[in-house]
């Protein structure tokens, strides 16, 4: 029953619809169409535009999702801005590495999560390294 209905639409109703369309013989003929003739053409033009879009869609550049462009995915999301202050005088070690990729489990201290991030994304981010100068007095 369903296939018979589809068959009737394709074999009988579609050709009859297309024959009744006011398709001009030349491009200039489109300029002479009346408003009612344009309204009769709209369904066909809409379907052709949709088919054209669906045909070229796989070749269009993919848009990144907003989430992909975020840098900070989970650190202190409840704050409007993440700020960490550390006095250089308070450094206990000679070298301290601070995270710049926002993926560290020990944020703000680097845990080398940027290595996996760089491998997955092709990025080249690395830590901020603060070195404490040891002054030797003679």
Automatic annotation (TrEMBL):
<dbReference type="GO" id="GO:0000422">
    <property type="term" value="P:autophagy of mitochondrion"/>
</dbReference>
<feature type="transmembrane region" description="Helical">
    <location>
        <begin position="38"/>
        <end position="56"/>
    </location>
</feature>
<dbReference type="GO" id="GO:0005789">
    <property type="term" value="C:endoplasmic reticulum membrane"/>
</dbReference>
<feature type="domain" description="Iron-binding zinc finger CDGSH type">
    <location>
        <begin position="81"/>
        <end position="120"/>
    </location>
</feature>
<keyword id="KW-0001">2Fe-2S</keyword>
<keyword id="KW-0479">Metal-binding</keyword>
<dbReference type="GO" id="GO:0051537">
    <property type="term" value="F:2 iron, 2 sulfur cluster binding"/>
</dbReference>
<protein>
    <recommendedName>
        <fullName>CDGSH iron-sulfur domain-containing protein 2</fullName>
    </recommendedName>
</protein>
<comment type="similarity">
    <text>Belongs to the CISD protein family. CISD2 subfamily.</text>
</comment>
<keyword id="KW-0256">Endoplasmic reticulum</keyword>
<keyword id="KW-0496">Mitochondrion</keyword>
<dbReference type="InterPro" id="IPR018967">
    <property type="entry name" value="FeS-contain_CDGSH-typ"/>
</dbReference>
<keyword id="KW-1000">Mitochondrion outer membrane</keyword>
<dbReference type="InterPro" id="IPR042216">
    <property type="entry name" value="MitoNEET_CISD"/>
</dbReference>
<keyword id="KW-0408">Iron</keyword>
<keyword id="KW-1133">Transmembrane helix</keyword>
<dbReference type="InterPro" id="IPR019610">
    <property type="entry name" value="FeS-contain_mitoNEET_N"/>
</dbReference>
<keyword id="KW-0812">Transmembrane</keyword>
<dbReference type="GO" id="GO:0005741">
    <property type="term" value="C:mitochondrial outer membrane"/>
</dbReference>
<dbReference type="GO" id="GO:0046872">
    <property type="term" value="F:metal ion binding"/>
</dbReference>
<keyword id="KW-0411">Iron-sulfur</keyword>
<keyword id="KW-0072">Autophagy</keyword>
<dbReference type="Pfam" id="PF09360">
    <property type="entry name" value="zf-CDGSH"/>
</dbReference>
<comment type="subunit">
    <text>Homodimer.</text>
</comment>
<dbReference type="Pfam" id="PF10660">
    <property type="entry name" value="MitoNEET_N"/>
</dbReference>
<comment type="function">
    <text>Regulator of autophagy that contributes to antagonize BECN1-mediated cellular autophagy at the endoplasmic reticulum. Participates in the interaction of BCL2 with BECN1 and is required for BCL2-mediated depression of endoplasmic reticulum Ca(2+) stores during autophagy.</text>
</comment>
<dbReference type="InterPro" id="IPR045131">
    <property type="entry name" value="CISD1/2"/>
</dbReference>
<keyword id="KW-0472">Membrane</keyword>
<dbReference type="GO" id="GO:0010506">
    <property type="term" value="P:regulation of autophagy"/>
</dbReference>
């Amino acid at each position: 029953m369903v296939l018979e209905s589809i068959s009737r639409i394709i074999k009988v109703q579609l050709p009859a619809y297309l024959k009744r369309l006011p398709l001009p013989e030349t491009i200039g003929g489109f300029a002479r169409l009346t408003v009612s003739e344009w309204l009769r053409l709209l369904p066909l033009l809409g379907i052709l535009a949709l088919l054209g879009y669906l045909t070229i869609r796989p070749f269009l550049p993919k848009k990144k999702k907003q989430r992909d462009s975020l840098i900070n995915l989970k650190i202190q999301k409840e704050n409007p801005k993440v700020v960490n202050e550390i006095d250089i005088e308070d450094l206990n070690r000679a070298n301290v590495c601070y995270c710049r990729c926002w993926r560290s489990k020990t944020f703000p201290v680097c845990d080398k999560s940027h290595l996996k991030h760089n491998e997955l994304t092709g990025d080249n981010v690395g830590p901020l390294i603060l070195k404490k100068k040891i002054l030797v007095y003679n």
